[in-house]
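User: Hi! I have a protein structure encoded as tokens and I'd like to know what sequence might fold into it. I'm fairly new to this, so please keep things simple.
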């Protein structure tokens, strides 16, 4: 928040000492959605006192795409021109606040520069989002892996989301799908387990995860291409290296029949130089200077930078900055050191503007009015100008407050001057950020004071920034002889389609109204409202009033302008098309002669991506009141560009722009062809043709080579080597797959394996598959713990022996089919079967699905018999083993002689065990004959036969 506040507003360069003022002519707070085009107009005023050619440079956040190219442009002395900048917010840009800067520098004097800043708020897009969090790039065939996804409800209402996973090769996924209820803003994690199949050859599978909210018509999909291989080897890079690029360039220019050209070499790179990434270096070596030979050439530049946890060092060509009031940024050659030790930060630098530090003895080429008043004594005493020496000390007062003191010594055309300032910045309750700085300067230019203040609030529905600075005429800091008061605001409730914006700025230059310089007062007011549809189309209306006055006694201008602007824009995602345009109609009045006239301005910009290989962008700007002076010139600027991917390695970029101002017309044509070679090198050919007042043709051919620059060996990477072999025959086993963490290695023909670059730490090494012979067992308990340290070169042996085998059958014995049931009947009492009885049983079939348990007291294995009743266990260690079966798996009418057997195994030995299950022989016992005669002889023994003894049985007796 605090950084955004510091960087919010434009920073015009000094007005008196050959400066240029650069500031937005429009709002500096923009609200844009992803895929939208942002357009703004920048006002550039030449205050150097002479006509000059300037170069603009647009600095965008990483990945943002400019639409309007930047070309050198001439500006007359005291003239103000408007520069159109337009850029596209990429579709993947996260919501938040971003900074865009437009820097303008005089082409032959880079020290004469100014910068305008814009703040862009990227609005959120409400949608259902499915993101892949983690999934392996490569898996071993036949193994399962996990893919982790996030399902995010980025809207403002509850959603019921159904999800599912699909494998292009039909691999089994668990779970196959599900349903989640998500609150607004809620994110839920889903883990899919995918079981691959071994097809025996490398292949690729596409895992697709789909989340749908059917009722709302929302859907999101995330896909991952995964390589499934039978074996793989991966690891860390053991070297610490920096990515660098070496480029050789040859450029030429043809102007009015005259040829100029030259060669240039450059080598640049940046990267970390330690394992943690806390220490980084960057460098740029480029020369000789080619800016005069061709407009496509670059200036000479040499610099080296080091950033560490406590110390930063820099040497060479850089932009050196201290504080907003003393020095916000000056490009030159020098050195810088920054030391941090909480709560203190100390920074010091010394620099010289290399392109302005001309010896006065060699200044004969300067015109009289450009001599900057350098008298003879100054020339004799000080041979160089453009030097700066700065020291700054910051102190953390609290977690959110910091105070600092800054001292700047400057040596330039005004002689030697010193600036001292006190600065404080921090956070106030309510999310407010405050920055204050007060300074005083003295020296050859005189004495003066300056003050800088900024109060801002970001991140909430209401966002605003109030800025004020004042610098006396003799104050020799970054600002001089000027006063600025401004407020920018932006308001929009979350979820509401309406938003509001506006600003009020008041700038005054030449505070003491020195008649030798313009003394101007600029006032600018804007109020705007916009509406955004769910389809991302938007419509906006702005009301603007501007006044500009000359405060000198002989005023040259005093004018105001009131205008209304209608903005519209939108995008069609299905066509990958984005368009934005505006119409501004106003009325301008000159108070000096009461002249009034109407003004009109049109802007149109768009991008279109008809295919993956083609991107087209264009813009059109018509300004019926092109400058802020009294002139009523009409300026038309139009441009069209395309980027084409001719093949996977060949791309072509084309760009054309025309600029028409009154009778002047300028057309620029640019082309760039880039070829990437198989070795990673690339060749680039750039050409430019200018038909304007500086009509010329330029070309540049470059050859670039990426170079990995080693800077040391990683201390957190080691090598693990070893061998998988037969302990008895000492032969190695080829094609055995081993896994160390997530890394995989495969043994060679002799059984050797290597994990060449592994990050040090504790791992488990396991044999996960491959062609290890059946029955081989490791003499080392697997997985084996590995404590890997740097230079751990001791081989890790994994000896194996052929394991013992236990096999057998659960056999059912039944009576032969020729034995009649009556032959199994016996007279007499029940008795145990005799040997002859068992001999009556014959083996009939093996019993399937009987559980067999094999144990040595510590290790326990369970196997189930197959359809033939057989079972087998391989790779058992030598020793005593017990084999048993669980009797609940045998038929109910069967018995078993022995349910457990003991076997003693030798290395490589084998034991065969049979469990005899016998079908029970049903024994029939004949009952003794009934004693009916005895019952008849003794009626008392049978009451039913003696009615007298049983009256109830003889009703007649009653």
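Assistant: Happy to help. Inverse folding works backwards from shape to sequence: for each of the 958 positions I chose a residue that suits the local structure. Here it is:
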């Amino acid at each position: 928040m605090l950084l955004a506040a510091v960087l919010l507003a434009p920073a015009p360069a000094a007005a008196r000492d050959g400066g240029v003022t650069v500031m937005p002519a429009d709002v500096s707070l923009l609200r844009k959605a992803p895929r939208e085009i942002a357009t703004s107009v920048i006002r550039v005023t030449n205050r150097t006192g002479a006509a000059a050619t300037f170069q603009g440079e647009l600095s965008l956040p990483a990945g943002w795409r400019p639409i309007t190219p930047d070309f050198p442009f001439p500006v007359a002395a005291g003239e103000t021109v408007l520069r159109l900048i337009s850029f596209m917010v990429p579709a993947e840009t996260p919501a938040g606040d971003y900074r865009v800067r437009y820097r303008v520098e005089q082409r032959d004097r880079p020290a004469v520069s100014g910068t305008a800043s814009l703040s862009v708020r990227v609005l959120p897009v409400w949608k259902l989002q499915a993101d892949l969090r983690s999934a392996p790039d490569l898996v071993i065939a036949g193994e399962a892996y996990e893919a982790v996804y996030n399902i995010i409800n980025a809207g403002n209402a509850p959603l019921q989301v159904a999800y599912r996973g699909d494998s292009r090769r039909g691999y089994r996924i668990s779970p196959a799908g599900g349903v989640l209820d998500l609150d607004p803003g809620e994110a839920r994690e889903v883990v899919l387990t995918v079981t691959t199949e071994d097809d025996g050859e490398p292949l690729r599978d596409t895992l697709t995860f789909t989340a749908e909210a059917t009722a709302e018509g929302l859907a999101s999909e995330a896909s991952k291409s995964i390589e499934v291989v039978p074996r793989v080897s991966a690891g860390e890079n053991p070297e610490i290296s920096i990515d660098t690029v070496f480029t050789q360039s040859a450029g030429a220019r043809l102007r009015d029949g005259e040829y100029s050209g030259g060669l240039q070499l450059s080598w640049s790179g940046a990267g970390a130089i330690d394992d943690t990434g806390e220490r980084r270096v960057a460098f740029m070596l480029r020369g000789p200077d080619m800016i005069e030979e061709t407009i496509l050439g670059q200036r000479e530049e040499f610099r080296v930078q080091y950033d560490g946890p406590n110390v930063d060092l820099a040497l060479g060509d850089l932009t050196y900055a201290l504080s907003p009031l003393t020095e916000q940024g000056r490009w030159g050659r020098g050195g810088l050191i920054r030391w941090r030790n909480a709560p203190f930060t100390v920074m010091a630098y010394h620099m010289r503007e290399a392109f302005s530090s001309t010896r006065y003895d060699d200044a004969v080429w300067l015109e009289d009015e450009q001599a900057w008043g350098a008298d003879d004594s100054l020339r004799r005493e000080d041979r160089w100008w453009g030097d700066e020496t700065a020291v700054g000390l910051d102190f953390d007062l609290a977690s959110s407050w910091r105070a600092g003191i800054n001292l700047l010594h400057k040596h330039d055309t005004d002689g030697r001057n010193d600036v001292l300032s006190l600065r404080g910045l921090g956070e106030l309750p309510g999310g407010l950020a405050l920055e204050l700085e007060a300074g005083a300067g003295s020296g050859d230019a005189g004495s003066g004071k300056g003050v800088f203040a900024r109060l801002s609030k970001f991140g909430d529905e209401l966002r605003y920034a109030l800025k004020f600075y004042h610098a006396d005429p003799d104050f020799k800091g970054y600002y001089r002889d000027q006063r600025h008061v401004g407020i920018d605001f932006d308001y929009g409730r979350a979820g509401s389609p309406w938003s509001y914006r506006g600003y009020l700025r008041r700038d005054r230059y030449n505070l003491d109204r020195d008649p030798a310089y313009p003394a101007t007062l600029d006032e600018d007011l804007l109020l705007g409202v916009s509406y955004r549809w769910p389809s991302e189309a938007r419509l906006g209306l702005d009301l603007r009033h501007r006044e500009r006055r000359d405060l000198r006694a002989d005023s040259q201008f005093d004018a105001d302008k009131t205008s209304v602007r209608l903005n519209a824009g939108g995008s069609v995602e299905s066509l990958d098309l984005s368009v934005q345009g505006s119409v501004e109609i106003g009325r301008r009045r000159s108070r000096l002669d009461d002249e009034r006239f109407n003004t009109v301005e049109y802007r149109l910009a768009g991008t279109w991506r008809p295919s993956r290989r083609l991107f087209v962008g264009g813009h059109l700007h018509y300004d019926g009141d092109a400058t802020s002076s009294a002139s009523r010139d009409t300026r038309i600027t139009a441009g069209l560009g395309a980027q084409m991917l001719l093949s996977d390695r060949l791309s072509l970029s084309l760009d054309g722009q025309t600029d028409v101002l009154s009778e002047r017309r300028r057309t620029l044509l640019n082309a760039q062809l880039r070829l990437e070679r198989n070795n990673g090198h690339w060749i680039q050919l750039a050409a430019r043709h200018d038909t304007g007042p500086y009509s010329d043709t330029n070309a540049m051919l470059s050859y670039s080579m990426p170079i990995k620059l080693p800077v040391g060996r990683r201390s957190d990477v080691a090598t693990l080597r070893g061998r998988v072999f037969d302990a008895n025959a000492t032969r190695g086993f080829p094609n055995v797959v081993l896994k160390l963490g997530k890394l995989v290695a495969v043994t060679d023909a002799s059984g050797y394996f290597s994990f060449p670059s592994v990050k040090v730490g504790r791992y488990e090494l396991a044999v996960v598959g491959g062609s290890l012979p059946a029955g081989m067992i490791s003499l080392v308990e697997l997985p084996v713990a590995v404590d890997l340290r740097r230079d751990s070169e001791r081989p890790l042996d994994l000896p194996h022996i052929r394991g013992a085998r236990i096999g057998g059958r659960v056999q059912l014995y039944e009576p032969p089919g020729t034995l009649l049931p009556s032959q199994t009947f016996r007279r007499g009492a029940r008795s145990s079967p005799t040997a002859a009885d068992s001999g009556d049983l014959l083996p009939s079939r093996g019993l399937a699905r009987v559980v067999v348990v094999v144990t040595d007291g510590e290790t326990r294995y369970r196997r189930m018999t197959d359809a033939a009743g057989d079972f087998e266990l391989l790779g058992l260690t030598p020793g005593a083993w017990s084999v048993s079966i669980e009797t609940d798996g045998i038929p109910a009418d069967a018995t078993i002689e022995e349910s457990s057997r003991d076997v003693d195994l030798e290395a490589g030995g084998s034991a065969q065990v049979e469990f005899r299950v016998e079908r029970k022989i049903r024994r029939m016992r004949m009952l003794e004959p009934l004693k009916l005669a005895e019952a008849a002889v003794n009626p008392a023994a049978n009451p039913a036969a003696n009615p007298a003894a049983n009256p109830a049985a003889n009703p007649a007796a009653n």
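A useful reference point when you look it over: Confidence is low (pLDDT under 50) at residues 1-17, 357-384, 820-836, 932-958. Feel free to ask if any position seems puzzling.
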